[in-house]
Model the fold of this input.
Amino acid sequence: AQSVAQPEDQVNVAEGNPLTVKCTYSVSGNPYLFWYVQYPNRGLQFLLKYITGDNLVKGSYGFEAEFNKSQTSFHLKKPSALVSDSALYFCAVLYNFNKFYFGSGTKLNVKP
Amino acid sequence: NAGVTQTPKFQVLKTGQSMTLQCAQDMNHNSMYWYRQDPGMGLRLIYYSASEGTTDKGEVPNGYNVSRLNKREFSLRLESAAPSQTSVYFCASSELMAGGSDGYTFGSGTRLTVV
Done:
């Protein structure tokens, strides 16, 4: 079965500090991995994806994610957090090229 | 603006009532999806339609029905609402293909409360 796990319900970080939001996955075959962000009362928005190629993927708003096959992880990172980055973040795996399985979400709080 | 439009945005139902959530997309996407979002559980797939004329069950289909009315529209129906169906419902569309997509485009959600 395809699945993703986000082990942290919440991550707190001070503005200007680096942030990491963790994701691990379990898939059969090659993983197609995505990160989405959800702001209050909004739908999810695409941030970045890993399909193949470089393990470090760069996405929107200065975010990046590192694919690690041996650790089956796809952690989301940003070198310097902004208060406006505070939101709910979802990791997802694409299955059969037509369905996503989402993690449970991690709430990111960036404090001034 | 191009995107996915969901109606209504908010709804309160009494147990046993029925209702239909509407979803329309104007991006000419083939695939459409209904998810529910519950605290601590992420998004769970209720039903999806890979293309016009087809529908398939997702992870949590019980208590729901869907209709892919045409390429643009995909509705979700609750025949007899239950408090366990209190949730936020998201519709999404996509043109997924191997490596060639940015995934889903989501609607802004329908917040449903069943009392």
